[in-house]
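Our collaborator T.R. sent over the components below with a one-line note: 'Predict the complex.' Nothing else. No constraints on interfaces, no templates requested, no preferences about which chain binds where. So this is a plain run: every listed entity goes in together, and whatever single assembly comes back becomes the starting point for the next discussion.
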Amino acid sequence: MKKLDSKIPPGPIAEKWSKYRSTMPLVAPHNKLRMEVIVVGTGLAGASAAATLGELGYNVKCFTFHDSPRRAHSIAAQGGINAAKNYRNDGDSVFRLFYDTIKGGDYRAREANVHRLAEVSGNIIDQCVAQGVPFAREYGGLLDTRSFGGTQVQRTFYAAGQTGQQLLLGAYSALSRQISLGSVKMYNRHEMLDLVIIDGKARGIIARNLISGKLERHGAHAVVLATGGYGNVYYLSTNAMGSNVSAAWQVHRRGAYFANPCFCQIHPTCIPVSGDYQSKLTLMSESLRNDGRVWIPKNIEDVQAIRAGKLKPTDLGEDSRDYYLERIYPAFGNLVPRDVASRAAKYVTDEGRGVGSSGLAVYLDFSTNLMRYGRSVATSKNQDNASDSQIYQWGKEVIQNKYGNLFEMYEKITGEDPYKTPMRIYPAIHYTMGGLWVDYNLQTSIPGLFALGESNFSDHGANRLGASALMQGLADGYFVIPYTIGTYMADEIRTPKIDTSAKEFEQTEKEVEARINLLLNIKGNRSVESYHRELGVDIMWQYCGMARNEPGLLKARDLVRKLRDDFWKNVYVSGTADEYNPELEKALRVADFMELAELMIVDALTREESCGGHFREEYQEEGGETKRDDENFMYVAAWEFKGVGNEPELHKEELKYEEIKIAARNYK
Amino acid sequence: MAHDEISLTLKVWRQKGPNKSGNFETHSVKINTHMSFLEMLDVLNEQLIMQKKEPVAFEHDCREGICGSCSLVINGRPHGPMQGTTTCQLHMRHFQDGETIYIEPYRAKAFPVIKDLVVDRSAFDRIIQSGGYVSVNTGGVPDGNAIAIEMITAKRAFEAATCIGCGACVAACPNASAMLFTSAKVSQLSLLPQGRQEANQRVLNMVTQMDNEGFGLCSNVGACEAECPKGISLDNIAIMNREYIGASFISRRLANK
Amino acid sequence: MKWLVNFLTSSLGRKVIMSLTGLFLCTFLVVHMIGNLKLFADSDGHKFNEYAEFMATNPLIKTVSYGLYFFIILHAVQGLLIYASNRAAVGGGRRYAGKQVAPTEARAAARNMAMLGTLILAFLLLHMWQFWFKAKFGGLAVEGDLFNEVKIAFAEPWVVIVYLLGLVALAMHLLHGFQSAFQTLGLNHPKYTPLIKGLGWAYSILVPLGFATMPIYFYVMAFNG
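Returned assembly:
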């Protein structure tokens, strides 16, 4: 068994990064000009990495399956980005952000990485402002911040409900600049289908030109993956339709370890499923919990009346409502971390008190704060005798300024006006904390292969705090990989340009071609979509979702294997390999999800504890809180691929907490 | 839930490739009114696949109105009949039982059709590459709060920056002009102090690139603003015009680039 | 001077030419209308003929009028060239089979500026042939009496109808063109743009209306004998 070396630099935690950064090997500018780097993915991590590596002088080739780098799913992040700026003077600090992230991650993240993340968080805000990212500002012209779950300070910077969009467009603009300067060559509509390894090092990729269908070989001294998470294994998630695990899965098949695959985040505030035709779920930003109060009716009779349409939620008085988050977690109230809020929603709906036609929804109600804001405006206008409707109107304007686009989005989808009636929300898969195992340099277990952003596992442990994904993606891309890639590249300065006619490229390309032909030639009777839905909705969400148990997981593993066998016998993929063929793209992705699903189940089975987003029903405290087993499971589970259907091999990276005292997570 | 079911006749544009001629194909679907427009197309494609026919190619990704991938001209209007709505957010409750719906790709010389309803919008990327950025490298920038920005200015810049690059403005414009798209970026960056430094060369270069891509001229019709799913304002076009005239006649620059 | 060539050949520069020439023509229209109101000054047209004589002989006016002819041609030619560019940008032919169009301000006018402009140009040619050409190169019924020519022309019902249609086209063209010119020049402001739009509406209705009084008045006079 290979020992995992996380390459954490020595020294006190607050000095690790700065010291390491000053002593790590460098690549001289003239050498950078001769070296090539492939970056796959153009989300926050990929675009920022490609742009910054280009600025440094590397020859970057950047790949996206989208028609433009700007479409990456980072664009959909709504709420904000954390940074330990302490502009509010509310006691924030690098240490506090570090601590909150470790605690929020239920003590399953690597301390050194998280501290580095907190250290560079402030630089990200500065960088984005300099790029022209229009963050929200206060009347004095300085940056505004708001609260997010799992913290007691206001450190979340935002741009209305479109922070991800604004940050991504900032990174996209930096990338566009490098493209125009010639240091980045952009390959739009190219999907990476495999990794090429020469002498044990990542030396290139096989990519499919999605327009012509041709397979292309691209060589480089190093390959950087920033390909996002795998939430779409559940079919219904808040991920974009195209989000997939394929790049990460293919490198896993080639030897990169996959860490903590069972750590998936279920976001508490999504628009509930409305029917079986549904193709995806829509998130309602966590920032809404700043002003929205979560409740369900106290009495089951009211629940039934509401479901039957005989009673409106607004008819229920305060006494008949159960603001259960405020009741159970008075210290954090509606702003408990996502896993806690999601599970609480599950419990109350399991009790049969859920609303909506399916009973799988709870209310998110803005009326209290709307009226409070309205009264505050009335006071500031010296209108103490303003009518209720006037106060409502003023309050509505305040809410509109803060969350207008989210409210519109909700109304478009549901046809209900959330200013008048509370939103209906329910948890949904949103983010995956697990991902490719990386060391402190963000290098995977394959030398020369790096993984950034959501595609790696490193910073969020078993649960990610809100507004931290944007922070991590940009930290990795702007401020970590540009340094740490040097530790690898410094030893590669003598390596000539990678020859793509090498036999390894030829061999890998042949394997990809064979796989494509295999899929096209099955010519069975079921659509790719139907397999994906069955895998996600009927198996993974059912048995490996919000709550998991051993018999369910065992059953799920069996079901996944059967479904996978059936897929390879009976799927129908239309069209040919040498044309624009979205069905083929989808089939390749679903095929990889089928394999990943089994690994997730195996990981969930092996982790006999509950922590963060991973909730094993066998391991819970009184009252349904997670019950961690620090003695036996305080490790990162890094899985090695041993062939489809074979038992993967587990490598454990023990987690050592030197700075933070481990405790039960308590948000009460 | 029977009253939520409706039947529709779809006239869908099919085209094999960029230089092939295309035609309308007629299909009927039975769908639920709670579906989104794209979910309705999913239903159609599932039908086609079951009949071993080729599914309709259309672009989509986030399905929550922010990535800008989805397009389509529905009954003559980009993103369909609802204002401020992308196709993926358009729900079928806005259509009547028995209705016939025309579904076409965006049509503009600068947006060639790739297949069926998919068009090539890479011209937008090239416009951004010609100057839609602030020339700062990573690191070495001042503190985020070093420069205060008036709230109303920050808000205007933000509103311009919410463009999703979907291209509906071009598809809606009777001249296939890309002024709204280009001006949104120009005005976002020219409003902010960070972008001011290279405002002159930016507007000159971006307009040149826009012209080279073969987009039409702006007649101030306002169809772009009316169809923009993000409500990007025509004011941005005025700002770009002002910037361009200023950069041409007042700035000391003698030529582009 | 490369910068100036760049400007004038760019899409924005070409539109700026349209807007500046258009606004110049707008001022001309006001002057022309006010001057022509002299038609109503007396019943024998003495004052009007005096005015016409002044306009045709004053050296300053003559110089300006050459500028005017140039701007009319520039506005028309540039407009037609822009129309051709725009057709090419759309890809030519019929664009969408779907019939709906976005609701926008002054939709019919804004979408048909080239067509309206062409109609106005045709009308203008007729108008100039009837009065300007004859006055300059001979052919008036009574030499030196333009007033008499107006009386004769507007006694014909078809002339009156053509003039009124021409003025409707002009009104529509102005309705969009007036405020559009300011937008093209980048003169946009939340406080003043509504004023410009209001002024544009008033202008586009009042000026053509002012012109319309003339054929109608003379037709009614002729009709009543």
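Summary for T.R.: The radius of gyration of chain B is 21 Å.
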